[in-house]
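Subgroup meeting minutes
Present: P.N., E.W., G.H.
Scribe: E.W.

1. P.N. recapped why we're keeping a running log of single-chain structure predictions: easier to compare across weeks, and new members can see raw inputs and outputs side by side.
2. G.H. added today's entry (426 aa).
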Amino acid sequence: MKEAPGQPERRRKARLRRLTIDLTPLRVSRDFRLVWFGLLITSAGSQFTLVAVFVQVKELTGSAAAVGATGLAYVAGLVAGTLAGGAVLDAWDRRRLLMFAQVGLAAGSTILLGGALAGEPPLWMIYAGLAVIAAGSAIDGPTRSAMTTRLLGAPLMPAAQALNQVVWNTSALLGPAAAGLVVARWGFTVAYAIDLASIACMFVAAALLHPMPPMAGDHRDTGLSAIREGFSFARRNRLIMSTFVIDLIAMIFGLPRALFPFLIVEQFHRSPEAIGLLFAAPALGALLGALTSGWTGRIRRQGLAVIVSVAAWGVAIAAFGLSGTWLWLGLTMLAIAGWADVVSAIFRVTILQTAAPDRLRGRLFGIHILVVTGGPRLGDVEAGVVARLLSPTFSVVSGGIACVIGAGLVALAYPELRRARAADVA
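Output recorded in log:
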């Protein structure tokens, strides 16, 4: 049967639409647009602090363990912020909470900027600045995430998470490369100042949002009882808990970014200015994954997709460690790892968004932020310690293998994740 004129072209366009990212959340919600663009700016700024801190501590100490210890400082602040935020996240107006979080982030950034202006700050000052930033992020991230379902509704959650992944990975792609150049040419002061200015942009975006008080009949308690309720729900809901566990495994064992300042010089034999390439490669893969994420909205076995993605991440990280002096191969493996990570993140957050009731969503996302932000910081510590005891290459390869094994163990220990389907969590 002969096709009608133009039919092949229409089919091709339809296939392309199913593959490319869904922009519907940006079209339908003004407040989501404000948060999204504010997040784009402040996420880019945070990359300047991430790179500057690693390079600054390396220059001050020359120790991989000291660089890895920045993770402990961040986790300490993150835990403190999670506990403090958990007491109020679902009881206060989320617009005001988002503005308050920017004040905390700005305070931490100011500490780092002050240390850079002083010349050679003591390590405790850098660690303190990171801890304050982490405390602010423990309120900032959960507040934004808890807003999303109220702004858009459950059906648009995969599209919203893909758009957020575009933000984070665009920032992670362009930010580190720019940060490496800024630190090399103009120093740490300028890098920290850029981050501080980006936080101010998010504050303005938050101020322009409509108020978002708790819904009628929702949780309004504060204090320790509110914190206990959030952690108790997460512990009892094995599906939600499994997403936390598998992400911790991936980030603690399979994220060797604290070793990038050493690997770029010792393994790949490049100048320190090229460190931005190692930071940017996972972001490039993740960005490509997010931009071609239209298919994720049609996946029903969301839990299985998480397990497979984490295992793929581990394989790619181990291959990165085995890439020898071939920088192009190492960057390719990091990009593949980034693609696997973004697929995992889209489905993990979608599961959490739809499985969590609104009255608990802020507190559960507080735990989520503790996991997704604290995990990489613990990974910095793990990578630094193993590298010091053995070698950076062994640290990277063994971490990747541990991710693969860990994903398999989670699949066995949590059948709820293995069997989770989109209809089950909606």
